[in-house]
């Protein structure tokens, strides 16, 4: 069996964190952080995290600011937003520049999230395979 | 220009004043003329009086010497007294003829003639007195006084009053009087003539002044008219500018009202949807967790737990859909290149009005099988259909019917919203898209709904039409170009 994908979920609401962990535990190894600063330190410690999903509205810094800082250090990782707000202009431009791959809405749709992650990881490994083949 | 006006004004006022003065002097001269005429008449009649009284004196004294009746002598001396101003005239004033004449003003030459006549008259009176005394027997002596007494000599008296020298002496009185009258007449006629010439000149002056005044006024009116027309033109121009400004102001006000409303609505719905979505997320998570649990460990009453789980899922989905629809309404962006799915927008609008429609309205959806995508602004198109729908609901009776139909027409989509409500009065049909036009009672509506609706449709290059029958219902047809 291949190593389970390691995923970091940054969210300030404890219920959401616990539920997310419970739901996605089957598919991924889920790590959590309460806000951006903590999220960055988790990323430092756990370098093999491949997927980062962040809430938008959080204390200290919002989701986009956190992902901006994280992407500077870890450009290889897949970043997503999961928000209860509708898509704002900030998120719109983050999608346009490729800072985030997708924006999910709350209440979350498990299948949608799983499908998106699978697709992005696979296309990435395909690219890698292609590169090594060449 | 102002100084020129002032000058014109002063000139015209001066001319008017001059005409006034001239008219006044003509009036004064006219009264002088009348006075001259009356003086001439008086002098003439006085000359006549003098002549007549002279004749009378002759007649009285001749009558006396012929009849010897004392009454004639009495009449003679009475008349003499009146003439000399000792006794009053029939009009009651005692004034000598000479004084009366002098009082009316006569020239020196006339006065000389008059004095001459008086002297001659006095001489005649002396002759006549001689005749009277001869009747009494008194005769003049060497000292020229009636000092010689004798028998009364009627013949002598008669001779004195009828001989040639008496007639000649009488003529010498009448001649200067005639001369006086002639001179006086010439003088006054000359004066009158002069006055008339003066009047004539004054009249001409007045005419000249009035004419030049009229000319000047005409010129001023011409100049002023030009200026007034220019000013009117300017006024018209600034009026138009003001109107434009007013229209701009109205539009700006509308935008402000609209944007303020939408901004607050956007903030509110964004906040509310966030607050609702989060707890929905809990339920969704719990539902998924429970589903996993039952999958892994099984349920003792699987049909019941499945029903419960599905109910949870259905509830969360419905609530999430409502929140999503709400968000569509207040999407605050000004882009007009979004993909707008007309059917899903219409459904969102129906969800938003669900509570108003429930139980009292039968909603019939007659959608075209094909889905339409219009390029535009999702939020604003939501506003359009929600507004038309809410108007339809407002117009509905207790049990109403609303039909929403969509049709494809070459490059357009037609959305037809029909209600069986109270309808729109024919005279209002042309006004309903005007800003601030409303038939709702004050406080219930600002009259902006259809104005905003039609301006949004304009921006989407579409059209909105209304067909309405009073008390039967309204049909709203919205045509939008398909992307």
From TrEMBL, chain A:
The modification 4-aspartylphosphate is found at residue 55. SMART domains: REC. The keyword Cell division does not apply. Pfam families: Response_reg (PF00072). Residues 6-121 form the Response regulatory domain. Gene3D superfamilies: 3.40.50.2300. One of its GO terms (biological process) is phosphorelay signal transduction system. Keywords: Phosphoprotein. SUPFAM superfamilies: CheY-like. PANTHER family: STRESS RESPONSE REGULATOR PROTEIN 1 (PTHR44591), TWO-COMPONENT RESPONSE REGULATOR-RELATED (PTHR44591:SF19). This is CheY chemotaxis protein or a CheY-like REC (Receiver) domain.
TrEMBL record, chain B:
SMART domains: HATPase_c. The keyword Transmembrane applies. The keyword Secreted does not apply. One of its GO terms (molecular function) is phosphorelay sensor kinase activity. It catalyses: ATP + protein L-histidine = ADP + protein N-phospho-L-histidine. InterPro entries: HATPase_C_sf, HATPase_dom, His_kinase_dom, HisK_dim/P_dom, HisK_dim/P_sf, Sig_transdc_His_kin-like_C. Keywords: Kinase, Membrane, Phosphoprotein, Transferase, Transmembrane, Transmembrane helix. Its EC number is 2.7.13.3. Gene3D superfamilies: 1.10.287.130, Histidine kinase-like ATPase, C-terminal domain. It comes from the Bacteria. SUPFAM superfamilies: ATPase domain of HSP90 chaperone/DNA topoisomerase II/histidine kinase, Homodimeric domain of signal transducing histidine kinase. Residues 271-483 form the Histidine kinase domain. Pfam families: HATPase_c. The chain crosses the membrane at residues 201-224. PANTHER family: SENSOR HISTIDINE KINASE, TWO-COMPONENT SENSOR PPRA. This is histidine kinase.
């Amino acid at each position: 069996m291949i190593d389970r994908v390691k995923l970091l979920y940054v969210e300030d609401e404890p219920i959401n964190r616990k539920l997310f962990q419970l739901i996605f535990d089957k598919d991924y190894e889920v790590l959590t952080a309460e806000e951006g600063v903590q999220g960055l330190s988790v990323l430092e410690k756990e370098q093999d995290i491949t997927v980062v999903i962040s809430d938008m509205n959080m204390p200290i810094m919002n989701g986009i600011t956190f992902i901006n800082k994280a992407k500077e250090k870890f450009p290889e990782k897949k970043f997503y937003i999961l928000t209860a707000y509708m898509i704002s202009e900030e998120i719109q431009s983050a999608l346009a520049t490729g800072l985030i791959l997708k924006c999910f809405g709350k209440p979350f749709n498990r299948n949608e999230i799983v499908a998106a992650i699978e697709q992005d990881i696979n296309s990435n490994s395909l690219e890698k395979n292609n590169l090594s083949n060449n | 220009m102002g100084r020129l006006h002032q000058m014109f004004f002063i000139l015209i006022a001066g001319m008017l004043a001059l005409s006034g003065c001239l008219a006044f002097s003509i009036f004064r001269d006219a009264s002088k003329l009348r006075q001259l005429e009356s003086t001439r008449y008086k002098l003439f009649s006085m000359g006549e009086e003098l002549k007549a009284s002279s004749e009378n004196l002759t007649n009285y004294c001749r009558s006396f010497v012929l009849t010897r009746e004392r009454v004639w002598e009495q009449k003679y001396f009475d008349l003499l007294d009146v003439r000399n101003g000792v006794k009053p005239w029939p009009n009651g004033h005692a004034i000598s003829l000479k004084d009366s004449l002098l009082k009316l003003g006569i020239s020196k030459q006339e006065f000389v003639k008059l004095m001459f006549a008086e002297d001659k008259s006095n001489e005649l009176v002396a002759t006549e007195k001689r005749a009277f005394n001869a009747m009494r027997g008194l005769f003049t002596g060497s000292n020229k006084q009636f000092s010689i007494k004798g028998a009364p000599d009627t013949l002598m008296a008669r001779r004195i009053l009828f001989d040639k020298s008496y007639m000649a002496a009488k003529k010498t009185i009448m001649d200067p009087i005639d001369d006086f009258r002639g001179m006086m007449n010439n003088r006054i006629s000359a004066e009158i003539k002069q006055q008339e010439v003066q009047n004539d000149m004054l009249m001409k002056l007045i005419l000249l002044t009035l004419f030049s005044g009229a000319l000047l006024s005409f010129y001023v009116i011409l100049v002023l008219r030009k200026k007034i027309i220019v000013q009117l033109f300017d006024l018209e121009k600034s009026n138009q500018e003001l109107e434009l400004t007013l229209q701009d102001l109205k539009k700006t006000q509308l935008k402000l009202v609209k944007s303020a409303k939408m901004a607050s609505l956007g903030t509110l719905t964004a906040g509310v949807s966030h607050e609702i979505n989060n707890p929905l997320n809990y339920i969704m998570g719990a539902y998924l967790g429970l589903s996993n649990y039952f999958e892994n460990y099984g349920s003792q009453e699987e049909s019941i737990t499945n029903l419960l789980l599905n109910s949870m899922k259905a509830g969360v989905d419905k609530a999430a859909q409502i929140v999503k629809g709400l968000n569509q309404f207040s999407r605050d962006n000004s882009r007009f290149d979004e993909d707008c799915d007309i059917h899903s927008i219409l459904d969102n609008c129906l969800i938003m009005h669900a509570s108003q429609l429930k139980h009292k309205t039968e909603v019939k959806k007659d959608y075209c099988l094909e889905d339409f995508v219009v390029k535009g602004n999702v939020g604003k198109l939501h506003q359009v259909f929600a507004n038309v729908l809410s108007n339809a609901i407002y117009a509905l009776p207790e049990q109403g019917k609303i039909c929403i139909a969509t049709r494809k027409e070459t490059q357009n989509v037609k959305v037809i919203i029909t209600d069986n409500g109270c309808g729109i009065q024919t005279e209002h049909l042309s006004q309903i898209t005007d800003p601030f036009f409303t038939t709702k009672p004050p406080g219930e509506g600002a009259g902006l709904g259809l104005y905003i609706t039609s301006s949004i449709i304009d921006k989407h290059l579409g059209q909105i039409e209304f067909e309405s029958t009073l008390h039967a219902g309204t049909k709203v047809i919205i045509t939008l170009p398909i992307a």
